[in-house]
Amino acid sequence: MYRLDSQDSRIFDIRREIESTDLRKQITDGLSSKPRRMPSLLLWDDEGQRLFNAFAQTSSYYIRQKELEILNRIADDIVANAPDGSVLVELGCGNLEKTAIILSAFERQQRKISYYALDVSFDELRDSINSLVERHQESNFVEINGLWGTYNDCTAWIASFADDDIHNFISFLWIGNSIANLQRSDVRSLLEQFDHACNKSNVNYQFIIGADSCNQEGRILEAYDTTNQLFRTFLLNGLHAANAVTGCEKFQDRDWSCMVEFDTREHELLMYYTPLRDISIEIGGHQIAISEGEKVHIVTSGKWREVDVEAICTTAGLGLSDIWRDSENMYCERMMYRTNL
Ligand SMILES: C[S@@+](CC[C@H](N)C(=O)[O-])C[C@H]1O[C@@H](n2cnc3c(N)ncnc32)[C@H](O)[C@@H]1O
C-alpha cells in the first residue's frame, strides 16, 4: 500500500492489481454475453466524476437536493452517534459536498474524527480532499485522509489493520444512493465482506446509508433525462473510458446513443448504450457484432422501497437504529448498527 501525499493530507493507494486488469475482461465478457452489459466502473474515471458533478446540479436531479436537506438537519445526530476519536469511512465519496456538512458538525461539537474518503479516481479524490483540508486546516478535531480504490479494496484494507492500529469504531457513510447502483445480491455480499473485515480487525461499526425511495416514475424520468446534455455526456463518457481501458478507439461517438428504462416491478432505473447502426467490435481476440438499437446495460439506479433496503441490510446482520426522510418522503437516510464484539 503506497502513501501519496496530496497538498496537506494523506491518500493511501489501496488498489489491488486484480481490479484494474479485471475491467478489460469485464468489458469483453459483458459485451459477449446476452443481455449485453458494460462494467459501471467505466462511468467513474476523472472526467466521469467531473461530468457527474455538473449533472448533479441540474434542478430536476432531486437526489442531491433531498440528501442535502436531510444531512443539514441530521449532521449533529450523526456526530452524536460516532464515539470521540473514531473513524469515518465514506464509500464512493464523490466531490465531498455533502461530507463537508458532516465534518463541520464534528468541528462544532469538538468531537475528534479520522475521516477517510474512498473513491476510484485519483485526481478527483485529491482535488476534493484538498479543498476540504483547506476548511479544516487549523482543526484539532478533524483529520482528513483519502483511500484510492474500490469498495472491495476497502474491505481488504480494513481486514489488514495491524494490532497497533487502534480503530475501535468505524462509521461507514454510504450516501448518494450509491448502494442502489449495485445489484441487491452484491450489496448483501459486500456488507458481509465489511462485516468479516471488521470482525477480523476487532472493530465495531455502523452504516449511514442514503437511499432514494422515490416512487414517482415521472419525477425519476425527468431527473434522468437523456435529452439533458449534461446527463447524456456523463453516460456516454463511459465509452471513452472503455477506449482508455482497452487501449484503442473501439467505441466511436458517432456510433452510440444512450437510453433509460424504468422497471416498475423491481423499482429500478436501467441505463443503456445503444448503437446507432449495426457494428462489429474486435475485443480481447473476439469479434462481437451488436445490432442497431440493441441495449448494452451500463448502470442501474435502484429506487428501492424502504422495506427492501431494510431487508437487504438486516439479512447482512445490520439493525436499524434511526431513519430520517426529506420533507416530501422521497429520500431517506438510515443508520444501521452492528456490534460485533
Ligand atoms: C452516485 S455517485 C455518489 C457520490 C457521492 N457519494 C454523493 O453522494 O454525491 C457514486 C460514487 O461512487 C463511486 N464508486 C462507484 N463504484 C465504486 C466502487 N466499486 N468502489 C468505490 N467507489 C465507487 C463513484 O466513483 C462515485 O463517486
Brief write-up:
GO terms for molecular function: methyltransferase activity. This protein is of the alpha/beta class.
Tell me the major beta sheet: 9 strands, mixed
Radius of gyration, rounded? 20 Å
Shape: globular
Strand content bin = 25-35%
**Uncertain ranges:** none
The CATH superfamily of the largest domain is known as Vaccinia Virus protein VP39
Distinct ligand kinds: S-adenosylmethionine
Task: Please estimate the helix content.
Answer: 25-40%
Number of helices: 10
What's the level 1 CATH class of the largest domain? Alpha Beta
Overall CATH architecture of the largest domain:
3-Layer(aba) Sandwich
**Neighbour order of strands in the largest sheet:** 1-2-6-5-4-7-8-15-14
User: N-to-C SSE series?
Assistant: EEHEHHEHEHEHEHEHHEEEEEHEE
Derived from helix and strand composition plus strand pairing, the structural class reads alpha/beta
Average residue-wise pLDDT: 93
- The end-to-end span amounts to 27 Å
Keywords:
globular; nine-stranded mixed beta sheet; 341 residues; Histidine-specific methyltransferase SAM-dependent domain-containing protein; methyltransferase activity; 10 helices; binds S-adenosylmethionine; EgtD_Methyltrsf_superfamily; 27% strand; 2 domains; 15 strands; alpha/beta
